[in-house]
Design goal:
Layout (H helix, E strand, L loop, with lengths): L3 E2 L2 E2 H13 L6 H8 L3 E10 L5 E10 L7 E2 L2 E3 L5 H17 L5 E7 L8 H17 L8 E2 L8 H14 L26 H15 L1 H6 L10 E5 L3 H12 L3 E6 L4 E3 L6 H11 L9 E3 L12 E4 L18 E3 L8 H9 L3 E3 L1 H4 L2 H15 L8 H19 L5 H8 L4 H26 L6 H19 L5
Helix pairs in contact: 1-3, 1-16, 3-16, 4-5, 6-8, 6-12, 6-15, 12-15, 15-16
The structure holds glutamic acid.
């Protein structure tokens, strides 16, 4: 079954965006079709014994889109809507995403067609371990081959099961922990991975809002402070994006989930809303807000920035004309269909594309993989040394001036970077420099192309470059 919305399946949507950008490059047609093609798809099914004794057949996929760099990388989603077209589309997006943010991986994606809420923890563990075992058998997982991560419906717990299953079958592989990322910190994970995608969304939106010319072009003033934001999705990406945007001074006026949405023009407290959502699974009765069960309407609410952070193909040709936001910040993968993209672009909205904006997750996954291969946590060697050096410097300044720094200030000056500080710094650097690179590509095309096309041009140039280094293509 393919997801057919309008004229494009999800994979056709990704390919259309690719083709638009490819037409602006001068690469050989052969190299372009190799970049676009999905190299391998493994479809598998296996039996699950349910807790009540019944046997059920579980269906899953793993797609490896491009091996121009190894390992391939991308999450695994547990969702009743998973299908091959979706997994292939998401794997392609991963290749372009990694290239855009200079993460040296090819793209991949996996999916299991289940509603995780309909299974017990023990059943989920059996499903995850068996899926991992099947990937091992076909060489579709490994620290230098293909490295899964969390996605919709999965998290650190599933990643820990994957790592454990892999390690149990590969005794003696020193790098085995690097077979999957997004693990719990105690099992080889890294601080900051859970919130990384949402934090990356915040950095990307902040970069876009900082640019006075870009803001003027869409009728907004520069800066994030006071901008009215609607977020669709209170999962890991949406919640953290809303949290960081509001901490930076943006006003979260609307929050939406699949069954309900809440609005308050004066702003919603993200923490209160998140706790409420977790307890009640309903936003219609969020205190101090106006609620509705017609949650899709939230996409059309009056705001400056709309962050679709739920599923693909949410903004379509039917609702795009009614979208009022001037900035569409794609936290989810593929939330805007091609027809909607044309409508929004014609209306002059600024779309910050998924393949750039939600790359924070894979960026920090890269840091986690590096940590697993190096077998030492970031900051462990230098932290104390840096603190002692800064303490000495501060002491010398105090002696020369005859003044003492008050303790909280002194502590913040001498603070040596720990793993979380370094992860966040690496993430911020990645998101800022990638945004600048995309804008530069757009400027090279005399600002006649949108950010998505510019991002794809950048990705295609980089991937084509690595094929050319092989000497196969001109
Ligand atoms: N599932 C996330 C994504 O779509 C993260 C992938 C990863 O960390 O490998 O980007």
């Amino acid at each position: 079954m393919t997801t057919v919305t309008e004229n494009f399946s999800f994979n056709e949507q990704v390919n259309r965006n690719f083709d638009r950008a490819a037409a602006l490059t001068s690469h050989d047609a052969g190299v372009l079709s190799q970049i676009r093609a999905c190299n391998a798809v493994y479809r598998l099914s296996f039996p699950l014994r349910r807790d009540d004794g019944r046997v059920e057949v579980i269906e899953g996929w793993r797609a490896e889109h491009s091996q121009h760099k190894l390992p391939t990388k991308g999450g695994i989603r547990f969702s009743p809507h998973v299908n091959e077209d979706e997994v292939v589309a998401l794997a392609g997006l991963m290749s372009y995403k990694c290239a855009i943010v200079d993460v040296p991986f090819g793209g991949a994606k996996g999916g299991i067609r289940i509603d995780p809420r309909a299974y017990s923890v023990a059943e989920l563990e059996r499903i995850t371990r068996r899926y991992t075992y099947e990937l091992i058998r076909k060489n579709f997982i490994g620290p230098g081959v293909d490295v899964p991560a969390p996605d919709l419906g999965t998290g650190p717990r599933e990643m820990a099961w994957i790592a454990d299953t892999y390690m149990a079958t590969t005794s003696g592989d020193l790098n085995a922990l690097g077979c999957v990322t997004g693990k719990p910190v105690g099992q080889g994970g890294i601080w900051g991975r859970t919130e990384a995608t949402g934090r990356g969304v915040y950095y990307g939106v902040r970069e876009a809002c900082q640019n006075a010319d870009d803001m003027l072009a869409i009728g907004l003033t520069p800066g994030l402070a006071g901008k009215r934001v609607v977020v669709q999705g209170l999962g890991n990406v949406g919640y953290h994006a809303a949290k960081f945007l509001s901490e930076a001074g943006a006003l979260i006026v609307g929050l939406a989930e699949y069954n309900s949405a809440a609005y308050n023009a004066d702003g919603i407290d993200v923490e209160v809303a998140f706790r409420h959502w977790q307890a009640e699974r309903n936003l219609t009765n969020l205190p101090g807000t106006t609620g509705t069960t017609r949650s899709a309407e939230a996409l059309e609410w009056d705001c400056d920035i709309l962050v679709p952070a739920a599923l693909e193909q949410q903004i379509r040709k039917e609702n795009a004309p009614r979208v009022k936001a001037r900035i569409i910040a794609e936290g989810a993968n593929g939330p805007v269909t091609p027809n909607a993209d044309d409508i929004l672009t014609a209306k002059g909205a600024l779309i910050i594309p998924d393949a750039y904006l939600n790359a924070g997750g894979v960026t920090v996954s890269y840091f986690e993989w590096l940590k697993n291969l190096s077998h030492v946590s970031f900051g462990r060697m230098e932290r104390r040394y840096e603190e002692a050096a800064s303490r000495r410097l501060l002491g010398a300044v105090e002696q020369a001036t005859g003044k003492r720094f008050p303790e909280p200030e002194a502590a913040s000056i001498v603070h040596g970077a720990n793993e979380l500080d370094l992860v966040n710094s690496g993430l911020e650097e990645t998101m800022c420099s990638a945004y600048a690179a995309i804008r530069e590509i757009r400027a090279r095309h005399k600002d006649l192309i949108d950010l998505r096309t510019a991002a794809f041009v950048g990705a295609i140039d980089k991937i084509a470059g690595s094929y050319k280094d092989l000497g196969i293509w001109p």
